[in-house]
Q: What sequence folds into this?
């Protein structure tokens, strides 16, 4: 009984001392849900599928960081005419490659006395579309994203990230082409925006120096209490 209490207290002290490093590399993988895109006389379906990528996060302190992120998914995409019945043969099929390259701030909220840190973030950047097997119609659009999740640190340089992320693109006047240039079966249409949501699991690998926790200044003299000061050391 006493050994169990002592072990629990020791683990709490150890976890309470953990903090993220100044630079973190976070490889990610997960699942993104399907989306429907509406064109002028047709609509497309971007199937659900797996995504993968990663990010570098530069932490200025334990609460504020800057993320540089890449995420990719390659899933089937079909084009249908309005009025098609369920199960109808699509007008055109392709494999849609969607590459997100983005950057943005991340705010972290460490749970006191715990290896857990809650975070939220926002990103801006570009989405690059690469239909396959014909990649001649590659196209880029402005992209945005929002994320939230939990970091669980095993030690200062390793942890697990559980996150949810919404990725979207602005409508692009340059259009999106289903097929390759010169393909008589291809379709060209003004591209609407995409909105995709998914969940990810990743590993946190600390590369920079370990960030210390906030500590209260020691050696407070007797008498009137001076203003409270916090600093890194």
A:
């Amino acid at each position: 009984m006493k050994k169990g209490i002592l072990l629990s207290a020791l683990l709490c002290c150890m976890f309470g001392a953990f903090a993220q490093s100044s630079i973190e590399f976070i490889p990610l993988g997960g699942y993104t849900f399907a989306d429907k895109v509406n064109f002028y006389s047709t609509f497309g379906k971007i199937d659900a599928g797996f995504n993968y990528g990663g990010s570098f996060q530069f932490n200025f302190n334990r609460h504020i960081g800057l993320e540089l992120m890449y995420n990719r998914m390659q899933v089937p995409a079909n084009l249908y005419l309005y009025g098609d019945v369920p199960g109808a043969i699509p007008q055109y099929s392709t494999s849609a490659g969607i590459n997100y390259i983005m950057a943005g701030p991340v705010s972290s909220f460490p749970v006191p006395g715990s290896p857990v840190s809650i975070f939220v973030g926002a990103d801006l950047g570009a989405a690059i579309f690469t239909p396959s097997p014909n990649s001649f119609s590659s196209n880029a659009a402005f992209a945005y994203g929002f994320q939230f999740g939990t970091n669980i640190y095993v030690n200062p340089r390793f942890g697990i990230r559980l996150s949810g992320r919404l990725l979207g693109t602005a409508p692009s006047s340059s259009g999106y082409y289903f097929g390759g240039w010169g393909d008589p079966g291809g379709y060209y249409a003004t591209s609407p925006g995409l909105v995709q949501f998914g969940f990810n699991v990743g590993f946190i690998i600390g590369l920079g120096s370990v960030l210390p926790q906030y500590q209260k200044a020691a050696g407070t003299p007797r008498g009137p209490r001076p203003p409270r000061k916090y600093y890194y050391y």
